[in-house]
Design goal:
Layout: H1 6-29, H2 32-53, H3 59-88, H4 104-109, H5 113-124, H6 129-136, H7 140-164
């Protein structure tokens, strides 16, 4: 991809990578709508930083990292809002996810966001434990623990689905 003018290069990057980025971020976010919002926000942030980001080996990796961090920030903000709601009002009535079929994407949605993040980054994007830890700003032991818990949970969820077929 050429690194001509900033807006042309960002447009080229957007056209070449948007669908792929939304697909990956959707696995972390648990849904396409939130993934689209986070990827779009990451591209908006890229516009103001293109001069610096364009010098990186892969600007797409930068956009993906920002989008995944935005998902994490949204979850953290949602948890804070929920804690405030619980302090000031009745508990939220949330029904469990439903569906006729549990596939990998649906099973990932049932994992806590921290476990989803490490599974997607480690197993689907190929990051090592250390790199995943650095990108998520957590300790490597936390990544290992989340991976272990996520693998156990996914095995149970997918086994449950296989027996329901």
């Amino acid at each position: 991809m050429g690194r001509s003018t900033g807006s042309d290069a960002v447009s080229d990057l957007y056209a070449a990578s948007y669908a792929r980025l939304v697909g990956v971020v959707a696995l972390v976010a648990g849904g396409r709508a939130e993934a689209e919002e986070c990827v779009q926000e990451a591209f908006v942030r890229l516009l103001g930083r293109w001069e610096r980001v364009s010098r990186l080996e892969s600007p797409e990796v930068w956009v993906r990292t920002v989008a995944i961090r935005l998902v994490a920030n949204r979850r953290r903000n949602a948890r804070s809002a929920l804690r405030a709601l619980l302090r000031h009002g009745p508990p939220v009535d949330a029904s469990p996810p439903s569906g006729d079929r549990v596939d990998l994407t649906a099973a990932l949605r049932r994992l806590p966001v921290g476990q989803r993040q490490v599974v997607v980054m480690h197993h689907l994007l190929g990051y090592g434990v250390e790199q995943t830890a650095e990108l998520l700003d957590v300790a490597p032991g936390t990544v290992k623990s989340r991976l272990s818990r996520a693998r156990s949970a996914l095995a149970g969820l997918l086994r449950e689905e296989a027996s329901n077929v």
